[in-house]
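hey m, so remember when u said the tokens were messed up on ur end? i reran from scratch. heres the input so u can diff it against urs
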Amino acid sequence: MRTAKLFGTLAALVMGAVAVAATPAAAESPFEPLPAPNASYTMVMYEAGITLDDPTAAVPPTAIARATLECYPHGGTHPTPEAACESLWQVGGEFDQLPTDPAAVCPAVVRPVTVEVKGHWFNEPAHFKHTYNNRCLAAVESDNVFRF
């Protein structure tokens, strides 16, 4: 009887040790966090002349469009993050260097919009603000980065 108890206790200890050894350590989790994007922007389009930085504006500015863009890895609410990030990569993240499509045609409508961008490009702060004659030109003159 004593031998049976001893074997039972010994078997329980061995099984417990096997169960502990088979359990992965917390540091070895198969779920690794996603890397932070190397470029991240908030882009807002306003009716021209109205920006968040204008303390003299009588009415708080109302955005007519906004998007977020993350690059490397790509994401955000921008409708085409891969293409937008590739365009920015070609100009080193310099929004004012984005190419214009000379074949694109926009209506001759004058309804100015201001696009303001804040964020970072590979750990460097980024800020860009420019007024375009209309939303179509904002897209065409930014290689469609501002088509949102």
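this time it looks ok to me. DSSP finds three helices and four strands in the chain. if urs says something different then somethings off w ur setup not the seq
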